[in-house]
Amino acid sequence: MGEPKESRLVPCGNGIMLDLENGIMYDQDGCGPFGVVDRYAAMGISRPDPATVCQGQCEGMGFVPTQFTKEEPWHTLWLNAELEKPSDDGWHFVKCPECGGTGKKP
Ligand SMILES: [Zn+2]
Fold this sequence. Notes:
This protein is α+β, with helices and mostly antiparallel strands. It folds into 2 domains: 6-36, no CATH class; 45-106, no CATH class. Helices cover 14% and strands 18% of the residues. The strands form 2 sheets. Strands 1-2-3-4 form a 4-stranded antiparallel β-sheet, with no helix packed on it. β1 and β2 form a beta hairpin. Zinc ion binds at residues 54, 56, 58, 62, 96, 98-99, 103.
């Protein structure tokens, strides 16, 4: 499974988009970056312990933002989330398949 190389911009409230790859925030017009943030601080969670942090794509957050993709398991996870509650912007935060949402090593 290839790691996506492009930046993943996800909305984090107040019209702010967060580039999860680089921890850079953009405003809603996309004319950022106007600030560099700690991605964990931006999401309001504490920085994970490297010894116990999940090795999956959630990187200790327990969930992974994903858009529609044909790549599994994200395709299935996205589809299930969409069936449950259709997304306004095409993004869903899905539970990390590695750690099951705990953000820790299984
Ligand atoms: Zn995980």
